[in-house]
Amino acid sequence: MGYLFLLLTIITETAAVLFMKSSDGFHQKTYSVIAVVAYMLSFVFLTLALKRMPVGTANAIWAGTSTLLVAILGVYIFKESLNARQMFFLALIVIGLVGLQWD
Question: What is the chain's pLDDT, residue by residue, as a tens digit (103 residues)?
Fold first, then answer.
């Protein structure tokens, strides 16, 4: 159940970041409200995940996975670009996430 809450944390936090970008510095009120609500939900879900998971593991998975998703979705949604160096370091995050789960 901890991983389910962590997944919900990742999804809502990623959505919050994307809606913050869409809010244009909080000028777009609808996107701003959605971003704030998504952040609130992400912290609720993270709190529930931490009841069932080690804090270090949960935080690393949350931060790493959300970073990857935001970077990838930024390319597709906002037409941002990633250079080779950035892609290399994103790949290192993936390696780290796999390593955390390796028993």
Answer: 999 999 999 999 999 999 999 999 999 999 999 999 999 999 999 999 999 999 999 999 999 999 999 999 999 999 999 999 999 999 999 999 998 888 6
What is residue 79's DSSP assignment? -
